[in-house]
Write a structure and sequence with these properties.
By secondary structure, the protein is an alpha+beta fold. It is 13% helix and 30% strand. The radius of gyration is 21 Å and the shape is elongated.
Length: 105
């Protein structure tokens, strides 16, 4: 899908319509985007072989992607960032839309 490099949008910081630069957010690793809390880490360590309880089958099932009926969607939702040309602050879009590829013209 082709999008313009700049677009006029409402800036929530300036509280007026200004010119915005559009950029696609970088893909983050699953660990950095959804890190485990301290409680979950502690629970996983307790289930591990270090405590003698075994993992209760949690880590022996294998990855979901290797399950028989596990299907990924063919497109991902967009994660666009808009940077205001006046105040230089960045805000995100409210709803993403599905697209295989995004290109800024």
């Amino acid at each position: 899908m082709k999008l313009p490099k700049t677009i006029k949008r409402h800036c929530p910081h300036c509280k007026k319509h200004t010119e915005h630069k559009i950029a696609s957010a970088k893909k983050r690793t699953p660990g950095s985007s959804r890190p485990l809390g301290a409680g979950s880490k502690r629970r996983m360590r307790k289930r591990g072989e270090a405590r003698g309880t075994g993992n209760l089958g949690k880590t022996s099932r294998g990855a979901l992607s290797s399950w028989k009926r596990y299907g990924k969607k063919t497109s991902k939702k967009t994660d666009l960032r808009y940077t205001c040309n006046e105040c230089k602050k960045t805000h995100t879009q409210k709803k993403g839309f599905r697209s295989k590829k995004i290109e800024f013209k």
